[in-house]
Amino acid sequence: VCEMCGYSGSINTFFSRTKRFCSMSCSRSYSSNSKKFSILARLQGRPPSKKAKVLNKVNKAPPPPVATEGYKALLRYEGFEHDSSHDFWCSLVLGEVNPIGWCAMTSKLLVPPQDVKQTIPDWKAYLMLKLVGANTLPVDFYSKVKPDALPLPLGRIPLLRLPHATVTLRSSQLTESMKPSVKVGTRVEVVDPKHVSRTRVANVAAVVGGRLQLIYADQSDSPDNTISDFWCHTWSPLVHPIGWSFRVGHAIKAPDERTSGVRLGADPDAECAPQPRFVYMDGGFFEKGMKLEAIDPLNLGSICVATVQKVLLDGYLMVAVDGSTSDNTSDWFCYHASSHSILPINFCKKNNIPLTVPNGYDCRTFSWEEYLEKTRAKAAPARLFYTDYPGHGFCPNMKLEAVDLMEPRLVCVATVRRCVGRLLLIHFDGWEDEFDQWVDYESPDIYPAGWCELMGYQLQPP
Fold first, then answer.
1. Are 113 and 83 in contact (CB under 8 A)?
2. CA-to-CA distance for 189 and 267, rounded, in angstroms?
């Protein structure tokens, strides 16, 4: 097998005493391009011009990626030139592709596609012309993308701009992803979906790609013969270490008297929910009664008129939607002051987003100035909100996989409907617009196309 072009043949027909190359041309090309351009050197990186071999019963000529989308590449076999009729999608992370030279190193036969033999009579010369000096996958490619590493949430993966409108990733970022920081059996505190103003203790039952299946410690309110659980990401603002509620002053439903007084650090394995951004309180901070706009935690496609109901420690706030039907505190929701789900007044007006107003008001004629005067309240100063926008690369109509946060065990095929600063309006393909959800571009609940396949997690089709 030629070490330069991968051609297989009889050893008696190979060139030189070492029989490493099929021709003098391959021998010279290998020497002149050693380490820098040789196929076996496997240059780092893999933009759409890189070459790769695809595993098949008979290894066919290496196709260059036509495009990369998420964890997948659209490939075209060498020899088809501008003919796209045989293009096919292939996973980049499940062992289906190999660097140029893999066949030579593993004594596999490399042959042209059957349809190409008739149009390219001198296949060896054609292959040498195409592959000499071509880039290929790095030799340690699969060690960088192995599934036992935890891929970064989509917003934390730098995006490549491609001709097709689908979110993609940069493979080097996968090596920077962390191992799951929360182990099975770890106890955590998580928001109670039936009573969002409080948390409850849960145990981690499973970890899939950084997503946690949590089993509530107290199952007394579960239907007979069922076990209540909840899914969220390790980095979700909904999950906290044991003792967090006690420390910041948040309500918690404890399964017994002992748990309600557990201090922070009682479970050192619960390294979940990275520390939120530090907030500076000099010169004023949020106060009880201040008005703002906020994503409704019970209807994530809606941005509502809201009020700060309580200021907790460490920069956390209890926020309630104005005009909510609850006559107690059960629909208050905890946001950190640095959260991008709370917004200054008139944010919706400036960005042409429908604002959900309290009962008795018309969204078409609603005026914040009149509302503040009527309720004798003041708006939260705009300087208190974190509205930084470094740019993210997302565009409308990009495809991705997204968690349905109202049913968080489901990961669905989705489309970016709108981009407003840091916020993305996610539309679930095949569903009505009323199910759309606003998320921050760094949300741990959006993933590149192919994430579910990589993790072995069920993807919900349109």
1. no
2. 11
Class of domain 1-35: alpha beta
379 - beta bridge partners? 291
Query: What is the CATH architecture of 290-384?
Result: Roll (2.30)
Task: Report pTM.
Answer: 0.72
Fold of 398-460: SH3 type barrels. (2.30.30)
Residue with tokens 């949590």: 214
Residues 6+ apart with CB under 8 A from 254: 200, 201, 218, 260
Render the burial of 169-207: b for 16+ CB within 10 Å, e for the rest. bebeebeebeebbbeeebbbbbbbbebbbbbbbbbbeeb
Structure-block tokens of residue 459: 């993807």
**How far lies 8's CA from each of 13, 14, 21, 101, in Å?**
10, 10, 10, 12
* 116-140 residues labelled b (16+ CB within 10 A) or e (exposed): beeebeebbebbbebbbebbbbbbe
Distance of CA 216 to the CA centre of its chain: 26
In 132-202, which residue ranges form alpha helices assigned H by DSSP? 141-145, 172-175
Helix boundaries (H) for 212-260: 244-248
Cα(175)–Cα(152) distance, integer angstroms = 10
* φ, ψ (nearest 5 deg) of residue 376: 55, 45
CATH placement of domain 67-149: 2.30.30.140
What sign does the CA torsion over 64, 68, 72, 74 have?
negative
| Side-chain-facing half-sphere of 106: CA atoms under 13 Å | 12
Q: SS3 breakdown of the chain: % helix, strand, coil, rounded to 5?
A: 15, 25, 55
Cα angle: 193, vertex 399, 448; to 5 degrees: 70
- The answer to whether 67-149 and 290-384 have equal CATH topology is yes
pLDDT by residue for the chain (462 residues), tens digit each?
A: 576 665 666 666 676 667 777 776 666 555 544 433 333 333 233 334 445 555 554 455 555 566 777 777 888 888 888 888 888 888 777 777 888 777 777 887 777 777 777 788 787 788 778 777 777 777 777 766 655 544 445 544 433 333 334 444 443 344 334 456 688 999 999 999 889 999 999 999 999 988 999 999 988 877 877 888 999 999 999 999 999 999 999 999 876 554 444 443 445 445 555 566 666 666 789 999 999 999 999 999 999 999 999 999 999 999 999 987 666 788 899 999 999 999 999 999 999 999 999 999 999 999 999 999 999 999 999 999 987 777 888 999 999 999 999 999 999 999 999 999 999 999 999 999 999 999 999 999 999 988 898 888 999 999
